[in-house]
Amino acid sequence: MPKLDQTTLAPALPGNCSTCSLLPAAFYCDGSDGCAAIIERLRRGQRGVRAKRSIYREGDVAQEIYVLYDGWAFRYKLLHSGQRQILSFLLPGDPISFPLLHLDRVNFSVRSLTAVTLCIFRRSEMSDYIAARPQLAKQAELICVQAMAATEERLVDLGRRSAYERVGKLILELVDRLHAKGLSDRKEAPFPLGQLHIADALGLTSVHVGRVLRQFRANGVLSLHRGRLTIHDPEALAQL
Amino acid sequence: MPKLDQTTLAPALPGNCSTCSLLPAAFYCDGSDGCAAIIERLRRGQRGVRAKRSIYREGDVAQEIYVLYDGWAFRYKLLHSGQRQILSFLLPGDPISFPLLHLDRVNFSVRSLTAVTLCIFRRSEMSDYIAARPQLAKQAELICVQAMAATEERLVDLGRRSAYERVGKLILELVDRLHAKGLSDRKEAPFPLGQLHIADALGLTSVHVGRVLRQFRANGVLSLHRGRLTIHDPEALAQL
DNA sequence: CGGAGAGTTGACTGTGTTCAAGCACCGTGG
DNA sequence: CCACGGTGCTTGAACACAGTCAACTCTCCG
Q1: Of A101, A94, A155, A144, which is closest to residue B101 (Cα–Cα)?
Q2: CA nearest A89: which of A21, A36, A11, A151?
Q3: Pairing status of strand A64-70 against strand A222-225
Q4: N or C: less crowded end of chain B, CB within 10 Å?
Q5: Does this model's pTM top 0.70?
Q6: Half-sphere exposure of A170 (CA within 13 A, CB side)
Q7: Is the CB of B194 under 7 A from strand C?
């Protein structure tokens, strides 16, 4: 079995923007002809980051903003007590992260899960570019509203659902997002999250997540092994 | 003791927009001279709603959007099981709610807590008005990002903080917001939330919220009685 | 006076945590 | 090729925070 590409040091390198498969779906693309050329001029290069490395730290001044070209990462907050709450997971094509356009200091941290490549933009340039295009500004607001809806859905999970439901819904959400990007067939998927990541995203402990995953396995719903997710019973999963 | 104005049927009625004290802080005001006149033309009147009435139901098509002129309300989601998760509380001057500008169907419900008056706008008109003003579009995005930050802070609460901390932080947040609007001196405030509302916002039960409030009273931190909040020890509260 | 709704209290239960030990896997280096 | 150490996963026992259920009180209001 070949190494998972998510764990290699240098994932696929972006060529130029006009051939980039992620571009058409990006929030900063208005679909016009000249768009790719403009964005290519806006792009300030790329950066490779190894797995489990810090990308932003809470309080950093963000002059540069990144788009995740390849690999997985996550946004989180750290408490004084050392506890961690993961806010969201970032998949290939996701911006890191939209609010950065408007905040002088980031109010969360970001860390790579796998090796990752980032496309680099200057915040001020990207901001001007969007502001000059009402069409894009509207699209940007839409992105923000959708992120809001996702966060609120997660809020409902933490407030009112059992550990079993939370874990199931998180996995389902990630598989759906991967599917939308053409990175999974909904039966199998790369899955670089550890039990501790799942726990920190869902307000649980890694020990309990382990027990819940055992239940899922016992029920024949899904199994998670060595960075690989397999879904045996999509029906049962969707039921949540 | 006079009746609390939050529970009267018809709260203060808005005059015209140019004399409205809420306008300068509203997200749809760019601060220009002609602004109030334009908004006054945009405004399609007002509506009074009694306490504990439904304002939006999840799935509704929203042609009209509202700004809360007076009174308290809250946004929430209902689960199949009948459980409720409150997403946020709305105070005088808050829009209900920003995402409505971009969503054809609302993905949450809204209910009045006290008697309420709403200023009414047509969604399409408001949307066009903002889109035509890049300055406003940017302001709108900022509002959205701030709402996002608040929701993520709540997410951290539900995921990683004890019941005692959650209740304390919620009360502190509301007092700060009231203070910012000139509606509280941080020592006392109207507080129309019941224990069930607090519980549904924080992922707890009303019984347990009752116990936590008793602790706060016993510790001499704050007391909550008959729709009135009194803070005895702001230090201890801010410590959370 | 009577009823509804919200808050209070107590006993009991349960979901998820804590702590601790052991195991499997994997990359590294001899 | 194997020994080593680190990290992450598994398991079990004891515990705690918060939930459930049920009875009771208080207040408001008709």
Answers
A1: A144
A2: A151
A3: unpaired
A4: N
A5: yes
A6: 30
A7: yes
